[in-house]
Fold these 4 entries.
Entry 1:
Amino acid sequence: MKKKKAGKTQGRPQKKALSSISVSPSPGAGWEEEGSPETVLADFSRLTHLVVDTSSFILFQELGLLGPLTSRWQCSITEKVLQELERGPNPPAAKDVLGFTIEPSLTVLSSHTPDNHLDPAKKEGGHGTPRTPLSTASPNTDWELLLLAERSGQALLSEDRKLLRAGEERKLLSLDTLLALVILRYLGTISRACYVQAQEYLLKRNRYSAAYLGFIEQLLLWMEKEGR
C-alpha cells in the first residue's frame, strides 16, 4: 500500500549506530547511567526519523513548533492518529500536517531501516523487560505506533510512559516532547529563548518527575557551558 506524503523533508546521513537510550517523563532504573550529557545529546542529535503519537503532535501544535519539528526530522503519523486529531477539540489545519508522512494502518513498510532502529545484538546488558512479540490483531493506536516504529526503524516521540517503555523494550530510541525540544535547541533548530518559553509551557501543562527534570537540567547546563 502506498504511503501518503503531506510534504517533503530532508533526511540527514547516518554515520554510526546509536546507543540504546529511552527517556520518558518518569525514567526507569538505569537511565542516569546511559552516558554523559555530551554522549546523550550526540546520540539523540543523530535522529533522522520519528513516529509521532497524538499527544506529542498536539503539544507541538500548541507550541506552534510543528514546522521546526518536521524541518529537522522526517516525521510519520498513522491514519488513526490523524483521525484522533481531527476528532479532537482543535483539529489540525492542512498546514499543520505538512511534512508528515501519513502511514496506513498496519502498512507493510520498506526493508530500509535507519540507524534509529537499534540492533538488540549491539546492546549488552541494559534494562527493561525481555522483548515480546507484537500482536497485529486489531491493535489500538499506541500499539500501531509501536509496530510502525519497530518495523521501520524510526524513533518514537510520545508523552505516554507505557508506550515509551515498550519502545525501550524493543531497543527503539524513544523520547518525549521536552527532550525533543532540548535536542532541537542543541541542534540550533530553535533558539534558546524559544526553548525557554516552550519549557515553561510544558512545565505548567505536564507533570514530570524530579529525577527526569534533573536529567534535563544536566543537559541544559552542559549546553550552556559549551555555549550552545
Note: The radius of gyration is 17 Å.
Entry 2:
Amino acid sequence: MNWQSTQAETEKLKFIGDWLKAEFDFTDLCTRYGISRKTGYKLINRYKEEGELAIRPRSHARHHHPNATPHKKQKRLIELKYRYPKWGPEKLRDWLLLNEAHEDWPAVSTIGDILKKHGLVKPKKYRKRVVAHTEPFSECDAPNRIWSADFKGQFRVGKPYCYPLTITDNFSRFLLVCKGLVGPRTKETMDGFKQAFIEYGLPDFIRTDNGQPFAGLGIGALTSLSIWWLKLGIMPERIERGHPEQNGRHERMHRTLKEAVASPPKTNFAEQQNSFDIFRNEYNHERPHQALNGKRPADVYQASHKTYFDNMPEVTYPAHFEIRKVKTNGQIKWFNKRYFVSELLHGEPLGLEMIDDGRATLYFSKLKLGLIDARENKINRL
C-alpha cells in the first residue's frame, strides 16, 4: 500500500518516531499509517541499518558520510528525548557526558538537527523577559547560605485546590521540598520546613515573597513562621512587592515544575504528590543545569552543618543590650512607658541597643524591628 501523505518523508519520520515510542502494537501502527506489515517491517529494517537515510528516496548519491552521526547514537539520543521530553539538546548532551562519558557524543547543534529531523523539537515561543535582579545572590557562595521558598500558583486537583510548597537551595538549585498542600496555612507550611530542617539542616537565610504565611502586616512583617525561623537562628529575607524576578532562580524552577506536573494536573492529591516526587528526583539527580556547568544539583549540594533541634534555646543578645520581655498584650515597658510590638511575640525577649538617651534600636533575635523613641513615645518601624 502507499503512504497516506504525499509528503512521504514526513510520514515515514512519524512512523519511525511512533515505533520508537513503543506505544502501539505493530499491526495497529501500520494500520494507522495505511501501510502493510510487510512495508512497515521493510522500513524498520532499513532504519536499523541506515538510520535517517532509510526514509529518503534511493539515489546514486553516496550512502555514507564520514562525519555522519552513527545510527546507534542517533537512536540513543531519540530514546533519551522521549525519556525527558522537556529537555533540549544542551541538557541531553550534558546528561550523556555525565552518564555515558565513554562515548563520543556530537555537538549540541548536531543533536538539535537530529531531533528536528525526527520531529522532536517544538518551536520556541519568544517573549520579552525582565532581566533578573540577582542581589543578594552575589553573596550566595555555598550551599545553605540562602534557601528560597514559595507557593507555586494553585491549581485544582479534582475538586480541591493544590498549593505546592517549594523550597530550594539557591547555590546548588537543589529542590529540598515539593509538597502539595490544601492551602498556604502556617501549620502545614511549618511541617514542610521542619521536614527539610531535619533532613538537610538549617540555612542562614530564607528568601520569600510578602504573602502569607511568610510575611505579615505588623512590625518586622513578623508571622508565627518567621518568628520560628528567627528562634532557630535563620534570618527571613523578603523580595520587594511585585518583583518576583528578585527570586529568579526559584521562579525558573517553578516554570519547569509547571510544565512537568501540572499540564494537566492529576485527579487526586496522592497521584499529584507522586508526580511531585518523581519531578523532584529527576530535577535533583538527573537534570543537568547550565548554571552549574552541566552538573546536577545533587552533585553540588551538601547538607548544612547546623542541626535542627525541637527544643530551641531562648533568644540571646550581646551583653550591652537591654532586655525586655513581651507581655501577653504584645507590649513592652521601657522608661516607664508602654509600647505595643506584637502579640505574636508574647513571652519572647527583645533586645534594645542604645543609640542615645531615650532612643534605642529594637531587635528580635538578629532582626531589626524599629527605632524606639521614649521622647516621642513611639516605635518607628524600619
Note: Residues 269-285 form the longest helix (17 residues).
Entry 3:
Amino acid sequence: MEYQRKGAPVEVKIGITDSPRELVFSSAQSPAEVEETVSAALAGDSGLLSLTDERGRRYLVNTAKIAYVEIGPADARRVGFGIGTDIIAKA
C-alpha cells in the first residue's frame, strides 16, 4: 500500500476504555513500526504504550485501558475554501 512508504505520515487512533473520545495523532513511523511497538507493549510487563507523534510529543497509554488501535494513512489537510465539482460542472 502507498501509505506504507517511509516518510509518509501515519494516523494512529487509540480507543480508551471508559472514555468517549479517542486519542488521534500523526506519526512519522511506518505502519509496521507502530504495530510492532503496540504489540510489544501489549505483550510486555511494563503496562505502558509509548508512541511519539510527528512533532516529537510523546503519548503514554496504560495498556490495560486500550480498547483498540487503528493505524492508517493520515488524511490530507485542506486549507481554504473549496468549490465542489458539481457546482463547477453546472456552470
Note: Helices lie at 31-43, 85-90.
Entry 4:
Amino acid sequence: MGQQISASFLPNDSIEPGTYRIIHDETGKALRIHEDDQMLMTWDGQAQGSNPHEGIKDHWFLLRSGDGYVFKHRQRGTYIGISFKSDPLYPVLATPSPTTWVIFTKGGSSNSECVIATDKAPWRVVSLHSGSNSSGANDDRLRLTRLYEYNDERWRLERIGDATGEAEETRLLRQQLKVAKTELVEKQAKLKIVEGKLAVNMRELTKVLGELCRKTGELEEQREALDQAMQELSTAKEEISEHNTANDEMERSISERDEIIHTKNAEFAEKDRIIAQLEEMVRSSNEQQDGMNSYPSQHQGTHADILSPSPEPTLEAIHRTRQSQSHSPTTELKAMLADLGWESD
C-alpha cells in the first residue's frame, strides 16, 4: 500500500445498476457493515462460512442518483454515507439516508478498478484505513481522505446480478399495501360500528340534554319561588320582630302598672288598717263621751230643783262649748288623714 497510481481516473456514469460486491483492489477484501455498529469494514469473502445469510452481507445494490450512484446494502437497507463529526478524517459508515457518489475508472481500461469520490472533482475519496491492524487484515475501516492516487483508494466493483432491490422493494411495498388495505377495511368496519354507537350515544345525549334543559327550567322556577318565599319569610320575621318588640313594650307597661297597683293595694291596705284603728278610737271616744254626757244630765235636774233656775248662758260659755265640739273624735280623725296626705269624705 502507498504505491502511487500512474494512470489517471475519469468519471464513469455508464456502469449499469445491479447487485455488486465492493472489493478493495489490493487486499481483495469485500466491503460490509460491522455487526456491532454502523461502521463499514473490509472482510475476507472466503471466511464467510456455510451460512447463507453470510453470503449477502457484502452485497450492495448500485442505483443511479442524478449524475452519480448510491450504494444500498441488500440485507440491511442502509446506504454508504459519511460522518462529519470528526475532521479531517471523516469515517465512512452505513446511514439511513443515501449519499450520492461519483465513480471514477481508469481511462481506456476494461477492468472494474475504480475510485469512489464525493464529487466529479475528486477532492475526497473513500480510502481504506488499517489503523492498528496489519495491511490487508479483516475489520479494516474506511474513511474519507484527499485523493493521493495511492493503492488504498482503489476499489473494484464485482457484478453479481441485475437485481437492484427495486422489484423486491416493490413487492414488499405491494404486500404492505395489501396488508394496509386489509387493515383499512377492518378499521373502516370498526369505525362504522363506532359511528353507529356514536349516533346512538348522540341521540341519547340529545335526549338527556333536553331533559336537563327542562329540569334546569324547573329548577330555575323553584329557585325563584324559593327566593320569593325567602323574601316573604324575611318580611314575616321583621313583622314578628316588630310584634315582639310591641309585646315586650306592652308587657313592660303591664308590669309597671302591676307594680303601681301592687303599691296602691299596699297603700289601701295600710289605709284600711289605719281607718280601722281610727274607727276603733272613735267608737271608744264616743262611748266615753256618751257616758260623760249622761252623768251630768242625771244630776243636773236635781241640783236645779234644789238651787235655782239656770241663768242665761254667757258668750264665754258658748265659745267654750264650740271649742269642745271642735275637738270631737271625728275632727281628730280628719286631722290624722290629712297628715297622711289623704282626704276624708
Note: The first helix runs from residue 166 to 306.
